[in-house]
Amino acid sequence: MKQVLLLAGDGIGPEIMAQAKKVLALLRAHGLALNVLEGNIGGAGVDSEGVPYPESTRALVAQADAVLLACVGGKKWDNLPRDLRPEQGLLAIRADLGVFANLRPVKAISALSEQSSLKKELIEGLDLLIVRELTGDIYFGQPRGIEMQEGERIGFNTMRYSETEIRRIAKVAFEAARARNKSVCSIDKMNVLECSQLWREVVQAVSADYPDVRLTHMLVDNAAMQLIRQPKAFDVLLTGNLFGDILSDEASMLTGSIGLLPSASVREDGVGLYEPIHGSAPDIAGQNKANPLAMILSVGMMLRYSLEQPLLCEKIEQAVEAVINQGLRTADIAQKGQEIATTDEMGEAVCAQLQQLLAL
Ligand code: NAD
To answer: Does the active-site annotation cover 139?
Structure first.
């Protein structure tokens, strides 16, 4: 039986995780075989065992096929030494799992297209996926540092990718495109960077194994423009770590609210870490105000990428869209004058829709 580890973390984490648990309970009641474990991470790890990534959590991670994580961080732990800060728990679990491929879908929900800062017609029907390499590039390349040279300080980092690293992330992008609209746009800066030149050559070579998927290349500066000029032209965007960091945050703004966007980080054997892209929202924590939809959509991604249940993922996406089409809004996605739903009400409404979809 598949093992799923739930890590609620801090701030709004426990409130939104409670909604994810309701969804999982419903799916299990409908026959999904799943063993659910729970552990602490972030500030909750510091409070319970003195560190943001406790040994007890590490042991549970080793048994898990998928980890569902809400969010970490908060004022209470802000003055701790760097290695005890909640965010270190995130870096530690990602490194421990060895998840090298970050997948971020950006899908517009038409009833919310007014909320985007772009024109409605540019957003309606938008459905793209960013596949970002997560464990290499300039963030990890050596040498790095700040040194004194000729009487002044010089800061330097190294952009570095091996053929193996490029090949394995490219495969993830091509496989994902196969299950979507069969188009990959690979992002680089090959006009000035040797690292990008290698990136382009290897991605091109991998594409020979995917004759059914169209491959295009785009320089990162142009991609930043095209994402807001005609985002619907993209299907799968394949990027390295640095370019993907910037482009995925830009893309996340296309749909309007941070409370709607899930993410997945996976490795070759399908084990993955699933989390909303937002933080612990300390300003609204404990008030039953948080939007649980990014968390619930993260459950969907977990079903698709680690638990081999793509149809259940689709049903969760349909249930979320139906609830929004019915007019239910948490404060972050409400227009002036609209009635505000609580975190619990939103979670329960999604479950009610899902229940109907599962009965079909
Ligand atoms: P944040 O994402 O927590 O919040 C930014 C704004 O968005 C806030 O106004 C917040 O209320 C709102 N928001 C976020 N998620 C929401 C949701 N689900 N529903 C409704 N509104 C939502 O970012 P921040 O304020 O910069 O950081 C707060 C804490 O979270 C910090 O401690 C930071 O280090 C941490 N953080 C954690 C993660 C993570 O766990 N992956 C990511 C980013 C920040």
So the answer is: yes
Identify the CA nearest to 134 among candidates 299, 290, 275. Answer: 275
Q: How much is the pTM? A: 0.92
Instruction: Kindly report the protein residue whose alpha carbon is nearest to atom 31 of ligand 1.
Output: 73
**Domain enclosing residue 198, as ranges:** 119-255
Catalytic residue list contains 249: yes
Among 198, 231, 255, where does a domain finish?
255
Query: What is the distance between the alpha carbons of residues 204 and 178, in angstroms, rounded to a whole number?
Result: 16
- Give DSSP secondary structure letters for 295-343: HHHHHHHHHHHTSS-HHHHHHHHHHHHHHHHTT---GGGPPTTPPPPPH
- Annotated active-site residue 53? The verdict is no
> Which atom, in ligand 1's list, is nearest to the CA of 71?
40
Please indicate, yes or no, whether residues 81 and 138 belong to a single structural domain of this protein.
Answer: no
Q: What's the helix, strand, coil split of the chain in %, to 5? A: 50, 20, 35
Give yes or no: 65 in active site: no
In angstroms, what is the span from residue 154 Cα to ligand 1's centroid? Answer: 33
In the chain, the number of structural domains is: 2
Identify whether residues 243 and 319 lie together within a single domain.
no
- Average pLDDT by consecutive 10-residue portion of the chain (360 residues)? 97 98 97 96 98 98 97 96 94 93 92 85 93 93 95 97 98 96 98 98 98 98 97 97 93 85 94 96 97 98 95 97 94 91 98 95
Tokens encoding 104: 């971020």
Q: Which residues face 133 on adjacent strands? A: 101
Pocket, ligand 1, Cβ cutoff 6 A: 12, 71-74, 87, 90, 258-259, 275, 278-284, 290-291, 294, 332
Q: What is the DSSP string of 140-196?
A: T-SS-EEEEETTEEEEE------HHHHHHHHHHHHHHHHTTTSEEEEEE-TTT-HHH
Q: Residue 119 in contact with residue 147, Cβ under 8 Å? A: no
Q: How far is the CA of 278 from the centre of ligand 1 (A)?
A: 5
Say whether 236 sits in a helix, a strand or coil. strand
Strands 262-266 and 101-107: what pairing?
Answer: antiparallel
Running DSSP on this structure, what letter comes out for residue 209? Answer: T
